[in-house]
Amino acid sequence: MTIQTENLHIVTLRPLPEPAALAAALPRDEAISRTVADSRAAIRAILSGQDERLLVIAGPCSIHDTKAALDYAARLAELRRALGDRLEIVMRVYFEKPRTTVGWKGLINDPHLDGSDRIEDGLPMARRLLLDINRMGLPAATEFLDPILPQYLADLIAWGAIGARTTESQIHRQLASGLSCPVGFKNGTDGGVQVALDAIRSAARPHSFPAITAEGRAAIATTTGNDACHVVLRGGHDGPNYSTAHVAQVAEAARRAGIDPGIVIDASHANSSKDPARQIEVSADVAAQIRGGEHRIRGLMLESNLVAGRQDLVPGAPPVYGQSITDGCLGWEESRTLLIDLAEAAATRLRRAA
């Protein structure tokens, strides 16, 4: 009798489509490829200080309703066209949600919001949404959490994030070193920034690590390193970290580490004390710093949706259209006003640089 030592806690193993097969079924066209490539180039220029415009990543905390997401995207795309001379607006399109304990893991993992975990349905749903958003001329940003999933979606992403819980992870630093888009590392949940600076230095170097190919086979990926990584300040247990003093401290720490931090401020999370309405206060402070001549702040992140606040899913009841089911968000009109104010601040910086 052979003693079983593997798969003791695995119930099923369901096959996923090959990344190449999904891309062939849902391909990007030349216009979509141009939107992605042009935005990546613009973001790199902004992060390096060559472009004095401001990067703004705005959108829902997480995507759970693709119809509402497209409604939001159409409005944001219009604003991108109107403010593009001052802002590089990218839509936040987050499909994966890291959980401290348990909870809904995002559209890819549970697209039907019922605990059925039909990842095989979530992947094409996510890719189709990214195609539709990019087709509007609106680039997309996302957080990379599972190291396998970028093979399915990364060709449609202009900017990526590594979250506060995973910035210290070697796996995610290696992943970032091979991604084709700029990547922001968030400071740790305790507010410490050194972990993000270390991550930037690590991701800029070549790495070799286990991965999968576009055909779904196990492989060893060898990377060049990614020189378009930077810091995202999101606050921590000790409070916010978006002030003038905090920016100066991060810039000095980065100087000692021999890197340009390319600072992006996350107006949500600990910087707003988890109160979505306080994102207005954070953004106003950032705008004032920019008007005052601060050039080390290169961007701002905003959790924004059609309807302000958040909701819990109620079994048997349809969710409120356009309202978050994870973290609370600003509503559309408040977000629009905020982005216009940021554009005016960026215009001041552009005039000073001219």
UniProtKB/TrEMBL annotation:
Pathway: Metabolic intermediate biosynthesis; chorismate biosynthesis; chorismate from D-erythrose 4-phosphate and phosphoenolpyruvate: step 1/7. Its EC number is 2.5.1.54. One of its GO terms (cellular component) is cytoplasm. The keyword Amino-acid biosynthesis applies. InterPro entries: Aldolase_TIM, DAHP1/KDSA, DAHP_synth_1. It catalyses: D-erythrose 4-phosphate + phosphoenolpyruvate + H2O = 7-phospho-2-dehydro-3-deoxy-D-arabino-heptonate + phosphate. Stereospecific condensation of phosphoenolpyruvate (PEP) and D-erythrose-4-phosphate (E4P) giving rise to 3-deoxy-D-arabino-heptulosonate-7-phosphate (DAHP). Belongs to the class-I DAHP synthase family. This is Phospho-2-dehydro-3-deoxyheptonate aldolase. It comes from Paracoccus kondratievae.
